[in-house]
Amino acid sequence: MHQTRIMFLSSDCGALSQTKMAQVGREAFEQTTVSQLPFSELELSKLAEEFGTPLYIIDERTLRTKVHKLKQGYSGYKGPVKIAYSIKTNFTPAVLKTFMSENTLFDLTSTGELYFYLRCGGKPENVIYTSVTETWEEFSEVLRSGIRLIVVGSSNGLSNLMGIAEKEGYNPKIMIRVDPEVGVKAEVRASRRNGRFGVPLSNNAGSLDCAAGLLRRIMASHLEFEGFHFHLGSQISDPACFLNALEKLEHFIAKMRREFPHLPVNIVDIGGGTPVNYGIRVPTPLEIGSMLEPRLNALAATLGSEFTLIVESGRYLSAEACVLLSRVLNTKNFGDQKVVFIDAGYHLLLDAVLLRQEYPQLIIPSCENEINEKIVLAGRLCDTYDTYPLSPASKVSGAEIGKLMAITHAGAYSIVFNMPFHCQTKPAIVMRKANGSYKCVRQHQTNEQLFEEEGGNLV
Ligand SMILES: *Cc1c(COP(=O)(O)O)cnc(C)c1O
User: Fold this and answer.
1) Which of 89, 99, 110, 278 to mutate to test the pocket of ligand 1 (most atoms within 8 A of CB)?
2) Which residue's C-alpha comes closest to atom 5 of ligand 1?
3) Residue 49 lies in a domain
4) How many domains, in total, are found in the chain?
5) Is the pTM above the cut of 0.70?
6) Residues 322-365: pLDDT tens digits?
7) Which of 22, 166, 186, 322 lies deepest, with the highest CB count within 10 Å?
8) CB atoms within 10 A of CB 423
9) Cα torsion at 112, 117, 121, 124 (round to 10°)?
10) Are residues 312 and 383 in the same domain?
11) Is residue 107 assigned to a domain?
């Protein structure tokens, strides 16, 4: 595998001296505690010189810290707690391997993700497989790989899983993905009445696609029922929805226990949604965990045994560890308004346009005095929508051609959306390892590689 060790030049840091740059770096770190930028300005300037821009820079230590913080948040729950990383958020192999060494579980949703996971040395016993399509072929491949914990969310999916298990002699542990149909305050909502994911806890007007229906079929088979799963949404700003969902689940379980007095509930998986501070204060894992803890312990008491609590997360675990570093290429003035064009765009950060996600942007070198100018931050694409909403934590004042623009919190739902619009090639990814060294973990895609990928050599 290609490895690049960065050799920093000892001089040539532009107009600023080394000491000055180091000071600027420290100040920036303190000023930006809201965005918790894990890199100094000096460091980012050097990396931009070495690798060019745009460039993603990931901090391994932050990835690891997040796993511990998330787990700590739920330490008030009396039973075992496991953290599961949702691969869809950032499937960079170096990131997957980092989480693997933290012994997290992994939330997988496609056989492509399964391929990445296995190629990175992931163990099948650490996977929770949750599909949307739940086809026969998909379950067949998943079971063949050795995965045994499977979440079903439709009657057709359960039929496929049961069919293969019987035909091939597998014994999967089945969880049911329920949709508690609760109101969710979040950037992305995944639970609602007649929602697309999972099956409702209600009887769903007699449809086969309801939690009780799936549960009865599993209990009547010789397959193992393992527990319940729900996922309410992403960037959840009010954790009360978790309480409502757990309460509804508890009622449902109590009702089903009348029918199946020995119904086992070994796992309760509360899905993802732990929010990230993009410049607006959000509840921390500790605050969320403390709020849920009485409800979780009460549920365990009602069940008469402690279930394993699984907390899934993608955004919280990966967002803050990564900076997308870009450079200002052009500016234009219209009265008091200044349009600043950077060499990134929504081909690198789709959520900036899709969800108007406000990523904090920081100009580097930072500007000591705020200049009174209204900045419109634009990407390099020839598309009306290619502008970046500013976050309350953004500091873009003093943006000039040649300066750097660090877009922070770019570790989640960003690299996975990289696309070649305007023949833009994928940027390199550099990881700052836990020991402080730098490693190129994805090389910059070349124009030739993109041309070939698009069939340039086939025609
Ligand atoms: C996307 C997803 C997650 C992760 O959500 P975050 O908001 O990134 O924590 C967890 N579980 C399921 C089932 C998901 O689809």
Assistant:
1) 89
2) 272
3) no
4) 2
5) yes
6) 999 999 999 999 988 999 999 999 999 999 999 999 999 999 99
7) 322
8) 10
9) -100
10) no
11) yes
